[in-house]
Each structure stands twice: as C-alpha cells, then as structure tokens.
Amino acid sequence: MSESFTLYKLIVLYMLEKVDFPLTNGQISEFVLDKGYTTYFKLQQALSEMVEARFVREEITHNRTLYHLTEEGASTLQFFGNKISPAIKNDIDAFFKEHRYELKNEVSVKADYFPNNLGEFSVQCRVIENEANLIDLTLTVPSEKEAQAIRARIPKGAAVVAMCVEGRLLSSEALAQQLAGYAAGGTSKVCFLVGGSFGLDEGIKREASLRLSMSPMTFPHHLARVMLAEQIYRACTINVGTQYHK
After folding, report:
1. Share of the chain above pLDDT 90, in %
2. I need a surface site. Which of 110, 132, 153, 190 has the fewest CB within 10 A?
3. Which residues in the chain belong to E strands, given as ranges?
4. How far apart are CA 69 and CA 72, in angstroms?
5. Which residues of 52-77 are buried (b: 16+ CB within 10 A; e: fewer)?
C-alpha cells in the first residue's frame, strides 16, 4: 500500500473525527477533489477498503451513502494521525468552520422508502440529532412512484398539513394563527399536501401535523390549489399586518 493512498484514508478519518454527524460520499468527495488531494476513483477505492477494514461504517439509502467513524477508525487515526500534514489539517478545519452548519443540516434529515407486508410502500422520514431520532415519521403509500415523490418533495423539518374534506375548518384568522404558531415553535417551513382526483393516502393524513379542509364541498384539486395559495397569502398578510385582508 503506497504512503499516499494511506494518507487519503487518514484524511477521511480525520474529517469524520472532526464532526459529530456522518458525512455523505458527496460531501467527502467534494472537499477532497476540490483540494486536489487525489482522484475520484482512488478516493472511492479508499472508502471501500476502509469499510471492509471496519474503519468506517457505511449507511446506504436509495439516494445517498453516509459514512460513520468507528472505534477501529478512531484508534487508527490516533496512532497514525501525525502522518497528516498541518497544512491539510488546517484545510479540513477551515472547511468545517465555514460549512459545518449546512453539512449537518444536509445529513440531519434522512428519508428512504421500502416495500411493506401489505404490498405497498412505506416512506420513512427521520430528523436526527447526535445519533438520536428527534422525529421518526413513516407514511404508507400505494406505489413506489408516489413514495419517491413524497420523499423528494417534503422539505427538511417542515410541518405537514394534509388537505382533505374531513379536516378541520379554519377561518383565515385561525389559519394565520396556526402558521404563526409553527414559526414561534421554531418550524420555518410548512408543507401543504393536496392530493389528486382520489385524494391523499390515508397514511399521509394520519401522520400529518394538521388535517385541513377548505369546505365540506368537493372541489377539483387544481382549483383547490389556487384557493389554498390565496388563503396562505391572506394568512401571511394578516400576520404582518398589511391591508389585504378585510
């Protein structure tokens, strides 16, 4: 094994040791390639060998691969970390000082889908802090396509509002209070789900933080979207005190 190839592995171990969250293959690759330490293919070979040696633990989902530092990897770094030059360590430290918050946000929300025993698909969305689940949400959907669509479109950390005819009827003022409550509780994003011709999956409605109805009457879902957009705008103007709402 060449000394330079060993260095690539130590760089990855040092990166994982400097943070309290896993790093994705893309995050590691972006930094290493941007600094010109090695090529993409040599880095991937190094990562593969570290997984086999149990220096790192690999976590694979449908859309990304994450790496966790193991005890074996930490011990290896402790013995051989002096092979990493101060200049490279400074590069890594500066990178995390500038990007730590966005890197952590990127990996703190994990979403995946898998077939269940009912012949349908389950979508699991988790918000993770220090290896513990803060939120663990599982939705049941009738198809893999819909599972993928939901997983891709629910924003990170968003409160989910399911639009359905059996939901709560709120005035514009009450909706404004609901949105203000989300903001006061630290939730910066709200995701409103409007289904198609056959409505939303029951699993989605059960797991939503709020079921909301605009009327006991039935509207075409395209029209419902326009009406909902107007009501969201109206609620926001109420909260900021403009003259739109009368």
Report:
1. 37
2. 132
3. 23-24, 56-60, 65-69, 109-115, 121-129, 132-141, 159-169, 190-193, 210-213
4. 8
5. eeebbbeeeeeebbbbebbeebeebb
CB 40 within 8 A of CB 28: no
User: Do 237 and 229 form a contact (C-beta atoms < 8 A)?
Assistant: no
User: Do residues 65 and 27 lie in contact, with contact meaning Cβ atoms separated by under 8 Å?
Assistant: no
Distance CA 206, CA 228 (A): 20
Q: State the DSSP string of 183-209.
A: HHTT---EEEE--BTTB--HHHHHHSS
Nearest to 9 by CA among 59, 38, 66, 87: 38
pLDDT tens digits along 145-165: 665 676 677 777 788 888 888
In whole angstroms, give the CA distance from residue 214 to residue 161: 12
Q: How far apart are CA 37 and CA 7, in angstroms?
A: 9
Edge-to-edge strand ranges of the sheet holding 109-115: 109-115, 121-129, 132-141
Bridge partners, residue 244, by sequence: none
CA-CA distance, 137 to 102, in Å (whole number)?
Answer: 23
pLDDT tens figures, 10-33? 999 999 999 988 999 999 999 999
DSSP conformational letter for 81:
G
